[in-house]
């Protein structure tokens, strides 16, 4: 389905990005994995996906908080047909206690990196007359929760960037859309549980049931495979006229 297409997935040595990388490789795309580390484990992950899917898979380290490294990732990959902007971090704190440097890091990694990688990838996509940009926003790109000021701000920004990119790319064979997952049980969510326990004064099970999944009417976490499958769909011919929009994978959260 995606044979001959080269996909770059930022922040893909874990969680949703890794799930998307697996699904793109299963669909026949060549895949570039990324994170800021350069460990043997990172390269082993690329090898494992390559072996199991038969796709060409490489790992390129680049820190998505740094402008030059965002742009450098696209250059080093030597071509990008599919760009998935997925790298992201989270911090949970009251607005008045929110550390300024953490705010800056979340805005840089969760939002600005998508601008820098897209700016670097678009000229090549335009030249080929084909391209797909998939931005991983969040239910928090459409709605807010307390104690997540930087994250909610960055994800709303990603949705705005998605619409603008789509308009500029329209008619050039290039689409740009955002996937808005609800809660997916990945390390970023796992790490929030102790903070939420502290903030709300609840135990782990109560936080999961009454804070996290309370907003998700299905009562279930979404899976990385489901988000990956949605990304593959957005790269398919069936989605060629889907652009500038958001697709929620949130068990009904944003329908509430
Ligand atoms: P995760 O922590 O498992 O993955 C985050 C990825 O980003 C990791 O691969 C990490 O190495 C990478 N990363 C972090 N800082 C980076 C940097 N400076 N440079 C390059 N890579 C960096 O979390 P996840 O849940 O898989 O999150 C992936 C994306 O999905 C994020 O953008 C997140 O906001 C979004 N999201 C997650 C959920 C959820 O419930 N898990 C819901 C909605 C949206």
From TrEMBL:
GO terms for biological process, alphabetical: monocarboxylic acid metabolic process
EC number, as in UniProt: 1.1.1.30
Annotated Pfam families: adh_short_C2
Keywords, sorted A to Z: Oxidoreductase
Keyword check for Oxidoreductase: yes
MF-aspect GO terms: 3-hydroxybutyrate dehydrogenase activity
Domain of life: Bacteria
InterPro entries, per database record: 3-OHbutyrate_DH, NAD(P)-bd_dom_sf, Sc_DH/Rdtase_CS, SDR, SDR_fam
Keyword Oxidoreductase: yes
Family: Belongs to the short-chain dehydrogenases/reductases (SDR) family.
Protein name: D-beta-hydroxybutyrate dehydrogenase
Organism: Roseinatronobacter ekhonensis
GN (gene name): bdhA_1
